[in-house]
Write a structure and sequence with these properties.
By secondary structure, the chain is α/β, with parallel strands linked by helices. The protein has three domains: 2-28 and 304-328, no CATH class; 47-296, no CATH class; 347-439, no CATH class. It has 16 helices and 13 strands. The strands form two sheets. Strands 1, 2, 3, 5, 7, 8, 10, 11, 12 and 13 form a ten-stranded mixed sheet that branches. The protein has a three-stranded antiparallel sheet with strand order 6-4-9. A hairpin with a 5-residue loop joins β10 and β11 (240-247). α13 crosses α15, α13 runs parallel beside α16 and α15 packs across α16 (425-439).
Length: 440
């Protein structure tokens, strides 16, 4: 009995040491806040906008991955899409995905940045020094010079001029520290925004747009070294509230108020009408509205904070530790030498080994080209033609049993494989199987 008690205490001590080594230190728990994501139903969330657009049959997509997915997703057309992102980001943009985002916009797509310049909600205070991340990615700089209303009144189009007095990252971090300081924050107040140029398509049918701001926050920061349009202004102060910039064949829109389309503001004023005007201005046939959830922490990628906050982890560990305690206190002899098992070598082991080798050494594009080569040779044998792997598009397109959408998808995969671009091999294999069944 004494030996078992000693074993029990030793095991509990071991558990405490292991827990102290692997479990993260628990600091003060952050107050849960509403985040600007397509799933959040709190005041600052975008779930109302997301579900409303789905109800209107507008193609929408929650982006839970890096910006590379904008080009890799075959459902998105090459141009005429709108990405909605919020600043500051909780997860920083990497250099490579920033380049791909800029290329994606230059191809004819659009980005709407809902920036917390003036409203500065609670979620923005928890984003560290990431305020500048999206603007650096999109090559937008800021100017310290106050932009006077009279200057832009002289320009009926609301054009903002280039300015050499721009600031660097340190100045922008200073701005964030000022906004998220420990001093008592003023309560947000309701404000109205009005069109700068009523003749602009984005201002059609809009009298006022409702939103909130905190007194004196980011009211006169402006963009430098880039020419664009001011589309909305604060009705009371005249400060710019919505900018529009051309970028290649696409465009960038920046709102000074992050909550302009949030759950609590979408139904006020002409906010919903502004959304429709924005879609008419940016979307093309088949274009998607893409919600950037990934850079606000709602991601398919590994998130260590979410991992350690998941209650299932601790329940699983508790179960394993309890099982281990029962194991070491048991009666059976668990330390005898086990008899080695020599499994028979089977053909399936060889197939798995060869398959694993090819999966590690071949690129997706090379595997896709080989699948298509054998598929086309299968059709060429039926037609009595030379088996050289060349496509027989005429035969496929004029086959009444083949859906024309499958034909177009097969052509897309064929072009991507020839260009050494990534191909979804599972979808390609299923498509080839479906075509063979249709033409058999």
């Amino acid at each position: 009995m004494k030996e078992r008690l000693a074993t029990l205490f030793a095991a509990l001590g071991t558990l405490l040491v292991v827990a102290a080594l692997i479990l993260p230190s628990t600091g003060p728990r952050e107050k849960p806040v509403s985040l600007p994501t397509s799933l959040d139903r709190g005041n600052e969330g975008l779930a109302a906008l997301y579900n409303w657009l789905r109800h209107l049959k507008v193609p929408v997509h929650p982006l839970r991955d890096r910006y590379q997915a904008l080009s890799d997703n075959l459902d998105f057309p090459e141009s005429g899409n709108l990405l909605i992102t919020t600043a500051p980001h909780r997860i920083l943009t990497r250099h490579l995905e920033g380049e791909q985002l800029r290329t994606w916009v230059q191809q004819g797509n659009h980005v709407l940045v809902l920036a917390a310049f003036s409203d500065w909600p609670d979620w923005a205070k928890q984003s560290g020094t990431n305020f500048y991340d999206v603007f650096t990615t999109l090559e937008l700089n800021f100017s310290q010079e106050r932009e006077s209303p009279s200057k832009d009144t002289a320009s009926p189009a609301g054009t903002t001029d280039d300015d050499e007095n721009d600031i660097d990252v340190e100045d922008l971090v200073e701005l964030q520290q000022e906004l998220s300081g420990e001093a008592a924050e003023p309560e947000p107040i309701e404000v109205e925004l009005v069109p700068q140029n009523p003749a602009h398509p984005l201002a059609a049918g809009i009298q006022t747009v409702s939103t909130r701001r905190r007194e004196g926050h980011g009211e006169w920061w402006r963009f430098a070294r880039r020419t664009g349009l001011i589309l909305l202004r604060d009705k009371a102060s005249g400060a710019p509230a919505l900018w529009y910039f051309r970028y290649g064949n696409g465009s960038i829109l920046v709102s000074r108020h992050a909550g302009i389309f949030s759950n609590s503001q979408l139904g006020k004023g002409n906010n919903a009408r502004l959304v429709l005007n924005l879609l008419n201005l940016t979307l093309r046939d088949g274009g998607y509205v893409i919600f950037d959830d990934a850079h606000q922490g709602l991601t398919n990628l590994y998130d260590p904070e979410a991992f350690w906050k998941d209650g299932r982890l601790y329940r699983s560990l508790a179960f394993l530790f309890a099982l281990w305690i029962v194991y070491i206190l048991g009666h059976s002899n668990r330390l005898h030498v086990s008899t080695p098992c020599n499994p028979m070598r089977r053909l399936v082991n060889h197939v798995r080994a060869v398959g694993g080798f090819f999966a590690r050494r071949l690129t997706r594009a090379a595997a896709a080209r080989r699948l298509l080569y054998h598929f086309f040779n299968h059709l060429r044998r039926r037609l009595g033609k030379a088996q050289n792997g060349e496509p027989v598009w005429d035969f496929i397109e004029h086959n009444a049993a083949v859906d024309h959408r499958d034909t177009e998808l097969l052509k897309q995969y064929y072009e991507r494989a020839l260009q050494n671009r990534r191909v979804n091999l599972i979808k390609l294999n299923n498509l080839i199987y479906r075509l063979r069944e249709s033409m058999s």
